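Lab notebook, design round three. We kept the backbone fixed and only want residue identities now. Task for the bench partner: fill in a sequence for the structure below.
Input C-alpha cells:
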C-alpha cells in the first residue's frame, strides 16, 4: 500500500504540481482565441469602456448602461487592462485565476473531509475537466463565482465564519443573489441532517452576515442612489427572479437539460463518474454499507444546486459549475479506493479506463472528420493535436491492459491535460486575425465619414471590442430593415445568406464591401462532427452598405 501511494504524483508537493497543471490547462494560450460572439464579449468590452470612460460605478456596453450583472468582474478586468493593456488574455485573466483557485480549494477541501489519498486527484480533475477548462478561457464571472460559492460552503462547514461572510459578499458582487442562495441551499439541509442547526454559533453567524453586507451591499446602494429604484427593479426582479422563473431571457429547456451538461462538463472523467459508483450504489441499496458523513455532504453539495437549477425555467450550461468540485472529490475518492483496494474492486476501474480510451479514440476520429470546418486553426497543429489525442487513447488502453493502477492518477491527469491543450491549440484556435478581427478591420477600411455600423445576427457582441465603435442594436429583422433604409450611408455586418431577403423586403440594393468565412461555435452540433458539410456549416459573413 505504501509503495503504491508513493507513486501518486506530487504527494510531497501537491500545491506546486496542481499550480503547474492548472497553469497549463487554464493559462497556456489564454489569449490565443479572439473574444467570442457570446456573453464574454459583454464583460471584455464593458471593462474596456469602464477604463475609457473613467466611470467605475455604472458598467456600460456599447456605450449604454449595462445593469444586468454586478460590477466585480468588470472592476477586476478593468484594473488588469490598466496594468497590462487591453487584450484577450487580460480580459480572461480573472476567470483563469478563479479556476486555479478552485483547483487548490478542491484539493484542500478533499483533505479536510478525510480523503487525503484522493485530494490531489480531486484537484487534478477540476484542473482538467472540460467544464472548468472551457470557462477559464472565457471572460466570464462564472468560474470565479464557482470558487466563491465553494469557498463559502467549505468555510461554513469548517466554522470559518469571517471567510464565509467575505466570500459570500464577494460572490454577491460577482454575480448577485445566487451567491447567497446556493450556499444556503446546501448548508441548511446538511446541518439539519447532522443535528447542528441548534448548535450554530449565532454571534459568529451574525458577524459573517455583517462582513457579507459590508463587502457586497455598498455598490448596490450606490447604484440605487445614482439610478433610483429602476435599477433595483431591473436587476433583482428582471435579471434574477424572472431569469429563474420565466422564459423571458432563455427559451424553456427540458427537465433533463443539465444531465448531459454535467456529463460533458466532467469530460474526459465522465466514464469514471458513470461506471465506478454502481458497486457502491448496490452496496447501499442492499444495506451492505452506509454512506459516510463526507459522502452525504458531497452528494448534497452537488445534488441540491443541480436540483435548484433543474427547477428553473431559464437554464444555461455554465450555471452548474459549482456542482463540479464536489463531483470531482467523489470521483477521485472512488478511483483512489479502487487503486488501493482489493483486486476484485478493480474490474470497474479497468472498464472505466478502457471506456475512456475509447472516448479519446472517437474524439480523434470526429476531429479528423471535422477538420475542414476549422477555418481559424492551423492545419499542422490540428493534425498534431489529433495525433496526440489518438496516442493518449493508446496509452490509456495499455494502462488498463497492464493493470498498472498505481500510475493511473498521474496518467489520467496527463492525458486529460494533453486532450484539452490539443483542442486549444488545434481545433479551437490558431490563425490570427480571426474572422471577427478581419471584419473589424474591414469596417475601419470602409468607414470614411462616421457612418453608423450595425451587426445583424452575427458578431453582434464581439465586433465592438475590435472596432471600438458604437454599434446599432439590430435585435430583429424589422430593425435591420430600418437600418438599411436609413437616408445616410450605413455599414451592415450580416450573413451572406440573409442579404437577398433583406434587400427584397427593404427595396435597398446593397453593395458588398468585404467577406469572411466563419464557423459559429453556437451552431456546432453532434451532426456537425459526424457529417460535416462545409458549405452548410460554415457561414459567409459580409460587410455591406446601402449607398
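Proposed sequence:
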Amino acid at each position: 500500500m505504501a509503495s503504491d501511494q508513493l507513486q501518486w504524483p506530487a504527494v510531497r508537493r501537491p500545491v506546486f504540481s496542481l499550480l503547474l497543471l492548472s497553469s497549463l490547462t487554464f493559462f497556456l494560450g489564454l489569449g490565443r482565441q479572439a473574444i467570442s460572439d457570446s456573453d464574454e464579449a459583454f464583460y471584455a468590452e464593458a471593462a474596456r469602456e469602464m477604463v475609457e470612460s473613467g466611470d467605475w460605478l455604472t458598467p456600460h456596453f456599447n456605450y449604454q448602461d449595462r445593469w444586468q450583472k454586478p460590477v466585480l468582474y468588470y472592476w477586476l478586468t478593468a484594473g488588469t487592462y490598466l496594468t497590462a493593456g487591453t487584450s484577450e488574455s487580460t480580459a480572461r485573466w480573472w476567470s483563469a485565476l478563479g479556476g486555479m483557485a478552485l483547483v487548490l480549494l478542491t484539493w484542500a477541501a478533499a483533505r479536510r473531509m478525510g480523503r487525503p489519498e484522493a485530494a490531489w486527484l480531486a484537484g487534478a480533475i477540476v484542473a482538467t475537466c472540460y467544464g472548468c477548462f472551457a470557462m477559464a478561457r472565457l471572460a466570464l464571472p462564472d468560474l470565479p463565482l464557482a470558487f466563491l460559492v465553494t469557498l463559502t460552503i467549505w468555510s461554513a462547514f469548517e466554522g470559518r465564519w469571517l471567510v464565509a461572510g467575505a466570500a459570500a459578499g464577494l460572490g454577491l458582487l460577482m454575480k448577485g443573489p445566487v451567491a447567497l442562495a446556493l450556499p444556503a441551499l446546501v448548508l441548511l439541509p446538511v446541518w439539519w441532517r447532522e443535528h447542528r442547526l441548534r448548535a450554530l454559533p449565532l454571534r459568529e453567524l451574525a458577524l459573517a452576515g455583517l462582513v457579507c453586507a459590508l463587502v457586497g451591499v455598498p455598490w448596490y446602494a450606490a447604484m440605487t442612489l445614482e439610478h433610483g429604484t429602476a435599477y433595483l427593479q431591473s436587476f433583482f426582479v428582471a435579471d434574477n427572479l424572472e431569469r429563474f422563473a420565466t422564459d423571458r431571457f432563455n427559451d424553456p429547456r427540458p427537465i433533463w437539460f443539465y444531465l448531459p451538461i454535467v456529463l460533458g462538463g466532467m469530460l474526459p472523467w465522465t466514464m469514471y463518474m458513470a461506471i465506478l459508483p454502481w458497486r457502491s450504489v448496490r452496496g447501499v441499496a442492499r444495506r451492505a454499507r452506509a454512506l459516510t458523513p463526507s459522502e452525504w455532504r458531497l452528494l448534497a453539495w452537488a445534488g441540491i444546486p443541480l436540483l435548484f437549477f433543474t427547477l428553473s425555467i431559464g437554464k444555461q450550461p455554465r450555471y452548474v459549475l459549482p456542482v463540479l468540485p464536489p463531483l470531482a472529490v467523489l470521483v477521485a475518492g472512488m478511483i483512489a479506493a479502487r487503486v488501493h483496494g482489493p483486486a476484485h474492486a478493480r474490474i470497474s476501474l479497468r472498464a472505466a479506463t478502457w471506456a475512456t480510451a475509447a472516448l479519446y479514440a472517437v474524439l480523434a476520429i470526429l476531429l479528423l472528420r471535422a477538420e475542414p470546418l476549422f477555418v481559424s486553426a492551423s492545419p499542422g497543429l490540428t493534425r498534431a493535436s489529433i495525433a496526440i489525442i489518438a496516442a493518449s487513447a493508446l496509452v490509456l488502453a495499455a494502462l488498463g491492459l497492464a493493470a498498472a493502477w498505481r500510475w493511473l492518477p498521474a496518467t489520467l491527469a496527463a492525458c486529460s491535460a494533453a486532450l484539452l491543450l490539443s483542442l486549444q491549440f488545434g481545433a479551437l484556435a490558431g490563425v490570427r486575425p480571426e474572422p471577427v478581427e478581419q471584419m473589424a478591420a474591414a469596417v475601419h477600411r470602409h468607414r470614411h465619414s462616421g457612418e453608423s455600423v450595425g451587426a445583424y445576427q452575427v458578431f453582434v457582441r464581439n465586433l465592438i471590442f475590435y472596432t471600438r465603435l458604437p454599434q446599432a442594436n439590430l435585435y430583429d429583422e424589422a430593425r435591420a430593415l430600418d437600418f438599411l433604409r436609413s437616408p445616410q450611408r450605413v455599414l451592415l455586418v450580416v450573413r451572406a445568406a440573409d442579404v437577398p431577403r433583406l434587400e427584397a423586403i427593404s427595396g435597398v440594393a446593397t453593395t458588398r464591401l468585404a467577406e469572411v468565412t466563419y464557423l459559429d461555435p453556437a451552431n456546432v452540433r453532434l451532426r456537425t462532427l459526424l457529417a460535416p458539410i462545409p458549405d452548410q456549416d460554415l457561414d459567409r459573413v459580409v460587410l455591406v452598405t446601402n449607398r
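Keep this in mind before ordering anything: Residues 9-332 form one domain.
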